[in-house]
Each structure stands twice: as C-alpha cells, then as structure tokens.
Amino acid sequence: MSTYTPDPERDLVLERTIAVAPERVWAAWTEPELLVQWFTPAPFKTVAADLDVRPGGRFSTTMESPEGEQYPNTGCILEVDPGRLLVWTSVLGEHYRPTPPSNGADDLAFTGRISIEPTADGGTRYTAIAIHPDPLTCRRHDEMGFSEGWGAALDQLVALMSAG
Amino acid sequence: MSTYTPDPERDLVLERTIAVAPERVWAAWTEPELLVQWFTPAPFKTVAADLDVRPGGRFSTTMESPEGEQYPNTGCILEVDPGRLLVWTSVLGEHYRPTPPSNGADDLAFTGRISIEPTADGGTRYTAIAIHPDPLTCRRHDEMGFSEGWGAALDQLVALMSAG
Q1: Does residue B51 have a pLDDT over 80?
Q2: What is the three-class DSSP state of B124?
Q3: B132 and chain A: CB distance < 8 Å anywhere?
Q4: pTM (2 decimals)?
Q5: Residue range B12-34, pLDDT digits in tens
Q6: CA distances (Å), A86 to each of A29, A47, A76, A111, B122, in order?
Q7: Distances in whole angstroms, Cα of residue A2 to Cα of each of A17, A75, A80, B51
Q8: Which region among A64-68, A101-105, B53-57, B143-147 has the lowest average model confidence (pLDDT)?
Q9: With contacts defined as CB-CB under 8 Å, which chain A residues touch B54?
Q10: Between helices A22-30 and A146-163, what is the axis angle to 10°?
C-alpha cells in the first residue's frame, strides 16, 4: 500500500532532506555494488549483497565486524515502486518464506519502508521507517542506536552518490 | 513473483481440479461474507473475516470451536493477481507489521499461496501451497492434518459456490 502513517509506539522514523536525486537514492538501495559501499555504518561494513528487486525477491546482505566476523542478514522484498518506495522485511526470506530474523548481533523483527520523494531543487525527501511487532522491540531497536546507525549509513549514501 | 516451485522438505501442497469457475473461487477467497461460509472445516466455523485485498492489507479471521471458544487469526496479504493468485502470510499483520503467528490452537508460521488456473471445461485447477520456515514446522503442519483440513474446507467452498 502506497501510504502509511507511522505508529509512534511501535515504529521508528528517520526523515531527512538530502542533496541526492531520487533516482540515485534508488540506485544506491537496489544495486548491490552500490549498496555494499554505504549500507553499514563504519567501522562495520557490508561485504556482500544479493538482491532480487521485486515482491517476493530476496534481500540478503552480509555485514562484517572490524574483527572480521561475518553476520548474514536475510530478508524479503515486499513492495517496489521504482524510484519512490521500497519495502522489505526481516521475518520472511525469498518467496515470502517465514524465517527467524537474522540481522547480525541482534535479531530484530522489523519491516523497513524507504520512501523517496523528489524535492523542488532536485534533491530527495528521504523517509526510513522501521515497523516493529510491539513497543518493546521498538524501544530495543531505538536503544541499539537506530537513529545514529541508519543516520550514519545515510551519510555514507550521500557521500557516495554525491561524488559520482 | 508469479511462479513458484514448491520445496518438498518445507512446503505442503494441496492440488485439485474443481468444477467451480476461477472467478467464483476468487470471490470465495476474497469476499468476507462468502469466506466465513467455507473457510474452516466443520464442526469448527469461521465467525468473522476482515480482509483488505491488496499488498499490505489485513487478512483477519476468527475461528470458533464447537464449544464456542474463539481463535482470532491475523495475517497480511502479500500478492494479489485477481482471479489468479493470492499470497498471504501469518507472520505479518496489516502494513506488513511483523506479528507473532496466531492461528487458533497452534500458532504456525507459514505463507499461503493460492493459485487458480482455468481449465478447458470452465472449472479451476486449484493449488494451495503452505510455505514453512523449516522441515520441522512443515511436518508439524502435516501431522496436524493439513491435507484433510484444507481439503475439507475446499469441499465446503465447492459446495457453496456450485450451489450459487
């Protein structure tokens, strides 16, 4: 569904206007060779990404710690509106198969909703929403540093895609 | 994704040709006032259904035992190809919010995929696939009586929709 109003008790929201064109934000999210360059806040990094950008397609990434430990993340893409909206979840894998969440150190159940809207000056109004099962999981994600983590990753996206 | 090959270790399949036109099978699945009349094998019954038939929409039903105990089921619709394909999951609720599965007596994590294909004589080739996280959950669903249960419900659908 194309519109969504966040639930303040169960959702976390990162909203920012960035000087990157919508189609370049979309590319950064959907092209594996770009995604690996910004997706994980340093000093962690994303060392692999395997995406099939359509409903039911896989959204798999592997994060690596500074010590070299690897954390595979599996997910499933749910909704795709090219250049505008990408929705995926950590509780399903490819073909919508239910899967225990696996996101590295903490295995959070959440759905991610990335909304990309053009601004008048050619930039993007970027809204990332993490949708959780309950207030407790939401607070846990918040205390793990959702805003800092997703914000630092977005800084990396902006640096990468402004340079190109 | 429109095509899917079942995994024999983790999926259960009910496949049958029925003398009901595809558009009537679709109606039985997507119109609440029809769904409640066939969805649960007797002597259990479905006493309420609340559907929003689009990706991210709710798929909520309430089952009632012969003793009058009620079991609410929550789910989320994932894919809709009117008259052809309906996919939903028990591990998400409306707006793709992750949710602990709730399906009455047993809380099974699964995704349901209902495929409806026209036959040459006006009937339907009906394929229902239950997609599970792992072989153990799949065997549990099998031992709970997947084939008998989904088969008996389908008999009720055929009886209902042939009468109309």
Answers
A1: yes
A2: strand
A3: yes
A4: 0.94
A5: 999 999 999 999 999 999 999 99
A6: 9, 21, 11, 11, 39
A7: 20, 20, 10, 17
A8: A101-105
A9: 1
A10: 110
